[in-house]
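TOKENISE THE FOLD
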Amino acid sequence: MAWDTEGTKQKLLEAGVRQFAAHGFAGARMDAIGKEAGVNKERAYQYFGGKSGLYGAVLADQLERLLDGVEVDGAGPDAVGRYAGELFDRFRVDPAPARLLAWESLELDDPIAADGRAELCRQRAGALQKALPALNAAEAAHLLLSVVTLAAGWWTLAHLARVIVGGDVSDAARREALVRQVASLAAS
């Protein structure tokens, strides 16, 4: 019987997402990832070169999925606000990418697989710059950082949201506020 290399890699990526999102880079265990994937953990080392390589592959895969199809549609501050809302919706469907990004920043000295991720971010910043032609490339990059931070923060700082805003705030109410605030930010 032939070994399904791509299928095994996909199982390891999926198990890696769940384990890294729940436990962080330091807390996730390769044996737990292998067990959840239903394969020997040695396959993860063979295919990804180790824990760091698997984490980088997980992040790259998750960010590509997160941003796939989320485009800046139109021009002006309202288009940027809608983009933030769409990104928020993606995190609502799957908060794992927000958690993975938070763990990476909390635990690691440097970003993993930064070159490939940087290119994806340059493309998104370019789309923001096209929607807001008065922005230069650096300003568009900072705006993208703000949008991603604001959209992801809801899924990583839920307790802080309850403290600051008070009570229970619905996802819909937060999304509405986010779209409005990002459009205002983009207008400034």
